[in-house]
Every structure is written in C-alpha cells, then in structure tokens.
Amino acid sequence: MRLVMGGESLLGQKTGIGQYTENLAREILKTGSINDFKFLSYGKLQDTAPLLTADPGEQKTSMAGQSNSKLLANLRGVASRNPAAVWCYNKAMPLLERHTLRDYTDSDVFHSPNYMLANFPGKRVVTILDLSTIKHPEFHHKGMVKFVNHHIRQSIQKADHIITISETVKSEIVEHLGVEEERITTTYLAANSTFKPLTAEEFAKHAFAPDLEYKKYFLCACTLEPRKNISRLLDAYCSYRKREGDSALPLVLVGHQGWYSEELYSRILELGIANGVRYLGYVDSSSLPIIFAGARALIFPSIYEGFGLPVLEAMQAGTAVLTSPNSAMSEVAQDAALFAEPASTEDIESKMLLLASDDTLIARLTSAGRQKSSEFSWHQCAKQTLSVYGKLAA
C-alpha cells in the first residue's frame, strides 16, 4: 500500500491540526507497514523527513523554490475572505493535484487530516476534527464558514471513509450531515510524551520566564479566537483578582492570535503584568510541556472543541484541569477534571478560587488526570487509522 497524507498543517507554527498530523505520521512510520509514504502540500508531493521536524524554519526552507505551492498556499490563506480567491483556489488546486497524483492507483490511500480531500485516484480518507463552522458560525469570518463548510460537505460525499477524534463529533456528523455511522471511525488523540510531571527543581532548570513560580500560576493554552472563550475568562480572572488582591495567582496565556483576536489581544495588553495577566504568545514545542507542568491548573473554558488536546496534555503533565462540561472536553476528561459552565463568568471565577486554595482538590485532580491520560496513546491512534486504510485497500 502507498500512502499520501495532507501535510499543509506541518508548515510553520503547529496548531492542534499540525500536532495530530505529525504524531499520527510518526507512529505510522514506526510500524513499517507503509512501503511508500509521502506528504502532499499545496499540490506538491514531498518525502516525510523534511516535514517531520521540530524546526518550523526547516519546514519553510523545504518549500523554497516551489513557486506554485507558495502561490496556492497564499491563495488559500486569503480564500476565506475573498470570493475571487475561493474561485481561483477551487479551480486551480484540483488540476494541480490530478497531475501530481496521476501515478497512484485504486490500491493506494490518500488521508486528509484536515477536512479537505485531494483529487486522488485511489481510496480517500478524511478526518473531520470538529464541526465548529457548522455549529458555531458566529465564531468565524463569514467567508471562512462558507469555504470550510463547502469543503467539509464535499469531502464527506467523496470520502471512502471518515475519521474523527471523539464520539461527540461522530454523533454531530451523523446528526448535522446525515452520514451513516458505519462510515465513521473514532480515533482518539494523545498527548506527546514530552508532557510529564516536573518537580520544582526540574522546573527551575528549564523555566525560560524567571517570574513564573512553580505551581503558582494559572495557565490557558489555546489559539486566541472567540470559541475559546478567552474574553469571559478574562472577566472571571479580573473578578478573582479583585477578590484576592496581591495573593491572586497570575494568569498565563499561551497561543498565537487567531480569528477576531485584535480586540482581545488589545485587552490582554491593557491588563498586562501589573494586573496579573501575562501573554507569552506562541511557545515552541520544547518549552510548552514545561509551562504546562509548572502550572497549578489549566483553565480551559472553551465553548466548543472536537477533542480539547490541552486538557489531555495538562492531565498527563500532572496539572489540574478546569474545563467546560460541553462538546468533547467532558468526554475526554470525565471525572478527572473540574467543570465550569462556559457562559457563566461567576462559575468560572468560583472554580478558579477553589483551585487556588484547595490543595486536596488539586491532589485529587492531578492523580485522576494522570490515570485518565494513560488511556490515550498515539500508538493506538495509528493502529486504528491503519486498520481503516487496510480495509479500504484490501
């Protein structure tokens, strides 16, 4: 069997999609069951090694000189807000893909880890990570909603099989898109092995921000976008800080800016260190596990998630978790997290107060989280994914 996997999410700074693609690909390669594995990035085939690197700079260099790919990458970037760009992208990409993939046959598999299927002559698998643009279009640009929803529906029609990352999203695909359950397989994600507990001494050796004290700060790690509920989290934190004064724990925000983030980013800057909020921006993969392990608790009151990988990463790192009892977060965490209603500033604040003051609660959540996180592995994710490939290519 020959395998081609969509690799665009591996270019530049990795978000959750990039982490999923990278870890799944690495585990598949470890099995040795695929004799020819390539990535497809904006119409160009590429060997796996250049993209499976921790250095985004190397990833960008590997694309140098590929003028058509760079043009289409830029076109896709603006397509969500420009109807003319959407038209150009939808016309140009299938032609380029058909030419690039012309030598593949019906016994080969293409897997898109991010909702968009290539013009592939063999078997086609698509991963639908979430239905955010369908269930919560108010959290995205209108052009983005139209672009993503068009490609999700198109991919579902053309795919030989659909993979998703939680039973929650599987049920949503059945309900909102009318897909038969037997066409969908759930493969849970996992946290990288680099997410693990650290002692205070180990944290001190690695900390790149000297003013972060071990287990004396709250952490929120996510892309700054509306569905992550950062605005309400800031409201809750400001109320908590007014109540607690100088004894209040700081709130550390990690993640790059996303859709509709300009006003939110301005507010974060206005709050600043003097008011306990510290925005670190995008943090590289070597430093992020350290920040997770050093936090007293992860505060992740997202309104909607297809999985909620930061929840699992925090639990594996020995950090207590506060998240939302909706979408996939409660499916992943179950009884190993504390829950707050995402629409209630008061509930988020009250739970933050508990986490800041109750050492017994922290110990219970930490222990339960470590046990729960052990149930997830990239090996299992890859095994289930390979089973899907095998059935299609048989």
Structural features, described:
With 394 residues, the protein is of the alpha/beta class. Helix content is 47%, strand content 14%. A seven-stranded mixed beta sheet has the order 3-2-1-4-5-6-7, with helices on both faces. A six-stranded parallel beta sheet has the order 10-9-8-11-12-13, with helices on both faces. β1 (2-6), α1 (16-31) and β2 (36-41) form a beta-alpha-beta unit. α10 (230-244) packs across α15 (345-357). The longest helix has 18 residues, at 83-100. The protein is globular. It starts with a strand and ends with a helix.
Tell how many strands the DSSP assignment holds. 13
The helix/strand order is EHEEHHHHEEHHEHEHEHEHEHEHEHEHHH
Helix content, binned percent: 40-55%
Estimate the mean pLDDT confidence: 89
Proportion of beta-strand residues: 5-15%
Uncertain regions spanning at least 5 consecutive residues: 54-67
Please give the radius of gyration in angstroms.
21 Å
Helices, by number, come to 17
**Main beta-sheet annotation:** 7 strands, mixed
Strand order of the largest sheet: 3-2-1-4-5-6-7
C-alpha geometry: globular
Structural class: alpha/beta
How far from one another are the termini?
A: 9 Å
